[in-house]
Design brief:
Number of helices: 4
Helix content: over 70%
Number of strands: 0
Mean pLDDT: 89
Length: 138
């Protein structure tokens, strides 16, 4: 798989993981100490919506980074890695935040385990897409 294909696959996995987290978060009671309390939103839902906003920005930034890398196609490894990390750092951080939310609040459902697996897949795909040295074709 080419690096840009890994990044596009990581975007798809990120969206799937977010939906798993959202479905798992909606099932939680608002106040775990008082089940009759039904006003407001639980902290998990608030964090999931915040993760959606951060995730949308990271998806846009990753997509722009893939386009810039494909259009410019720099030969220097340091420039390629700089473009890569500037465009994918937010996707890694938001995946780690998703893992933190799942691990802290909703790790007891099948959907949350699937979401955690997908977030781990995002992290692995992004790290495996890191630019490497290429041999000169002469």
């Amino acid at each position: 798989m080419r690096p840009y294909q890994r990044l596009l696959a990581s975007i798809v996995l990120f969206v799937g993981a977010w939906f798993c987290l959202l479905c798992a978060a909606v099932q939680l009671p608002i106040n775990s100490q008082d089940p009759l309390d039904t006003e407001g939103l639980s902290i998990v839902v608030i964090l999931t919506v915040a993760l959606q906003g951060i995730g949308f920005a990271s998806i846009v930034l990753t997509s722009v980074g893939v386009l810039i890398s494909r259009i410019i196609n720099p030969k220097s490894l340091s420039i390629r890695r700089t473009i890569f990390w500037m465009s994918n750092f937010l996707l890694l951080l938001s995946s780690l935040l998703g893992l933190l939310v799942i691990g802290s609040f909703v790790l007891d459902t099948i959907l949350s385990i699937a979401g955690a697996s997908l977030y781990l897949g995002v992290i692995i795909l992004v790290l495996s897409a890191t630019p490497k040295r290429i041999a000169d074709k002469k």
